[in-house]
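Sat 14:20. Reprocessing the chain from the morning session after the first attempt stalled halfway. Input below, unchanged.
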Amino acid sequence: MLAGYPMMERPIMAITVETADMKPALLLASLLFTGSALAFHCPADMKKIDDALAAKPALSADKLAEVKKLRAEGEVLHKAGKHQESVDTLAKAMTMLGLNKS
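Finished this time. Tokens:
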């Protein structure tokens, strides 16, 4: 029981200066971790593409060359820190390989 509040009337969460000050910090932390999540996504996608290519997919020479080009571009973008662009580029290659079927 909180001082001054009967059990049934106590607040669920009181907004205090401390909790209000934490909101910008939590927002910043979530944005930073989002970038990190994308950074780890790229190598996983590259591995999926590499595994599919190793299995000799039934693609025309032109499509196979396009997949390899997109895979290489995705890696360059990843190393340059452009993770969203890398994920998007690798997704195109994965779609061509039939890996993005939901």
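The mean pLDDT is 79.
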